[in-house]
Amino acid sequence: MLTVGDKFPAFKLTAVKGGPDGLEGPGKSFVEITNESDAGKWKIVFFWPKDFTFICPTEIAAFGKLNGEFSDRDAVLYGASTDSEFVHLNWRVYNKDINDLPIPMLADTKRELSSALGILDKNEGVALRATFIVDPEGTIQWASVNGLNVGRNPQEVVRVLDALQTDELCPCNWNKGGDTLKPQELFQAA
User: Fold this and answer.
1) I want to staple 75 with a disulfide (CB 3.0 to 4.6 A). Which of 70, 109, 133, 173 is the partner?
2) 10 Å Cβ neighbour count for 109?
3) Strand partners, 90
4) Which residue pairs from 19-22 have beta carbons closer than 8 angstroms and sit at least 24 positions apart in sequence?
5) What's the whole-model pTM score?
C-alpha cells in the first residue's frame, strides 16, 4: 500500500458530479476527474467497498456534510469505489442519505487507482475503506485504512488536515487553535 511520502498515482476516472448537477441523468451527470483536477489544492480521496451497502452511505453522507469545512481549508473531497458511474448515479437517485451529496463519486471500475494504491481487499476484490490526504504537490501526507466492516470518522480527517496545514508539531488530540509543540521550549523547561 502507498503511504506517507509517496506520490499519489496518476489517474483519469469518470465520476458522478457533486450537487444537483449529479442528478441530471446519464450523459449530463458525469465528469472526468484526473490527478491534475483541482491543481494547487489539498485533496482528500476516500474509498468505500461497494455501493448499495449499509455502512458506506453513512460515511459518504458524513464526508458530504463536512464538504464546506474541507473547502474552507482549500481542500477538495473525492469519494471512490470500484462501482461504475451508472451505479453511483442510481444509488444517489434512490438513497436519501446521499441524494444531495456535494462531492463527486469516482468510478474506479478497472480498479486501476485502487490497485496502484494497494487498497484492494484480497478476498473480495473491492476497495478497502481507505482515506488519503494529498498535499498540493501530489504527495500523500496521511493514509488510513479500515476493514470492510468498520466505518471511519470523517471529523478525524478534518482534524488531521488542520494539523498538517499548521506545518508544526501537533501533540496527541490536538485540535485547530490549540497549542503546538515548540522543541526549544521543551528543552528549556527541563
Assistant:
1) 70
2) 15
3) none
4) 19/100, 19/101, 19/102, 20/100, 22/89, 22/92, 22/101, 22/104, 22/105
5) 0.94
The answer to whether residue 1 sits within a structural domain is: no
Total domains present in the chain: 1
How do residues 106-122 score in pLDDT, each as one tens digit? Answer: 999 999 999 999 999 99
How many helices (H) and strands (E) are present in the chain, helices listed first? 6, 7
**Segments forming the whole domain that contains residue 88:** 6-189
For residue 183, name the pLDDT band (cuts at 50, 70, 90): confident
Supply the CATH number for residue 87's domain. Answer: 3.40.30.10
Place of cell 442528478: 23
User: 81 lies in a domain?
Assistant: yes
Q: What is the pLDDT of residues 149-182, one digit of tens each?
A: 999 999 999 999 999 999 999 999 999 999 999 8
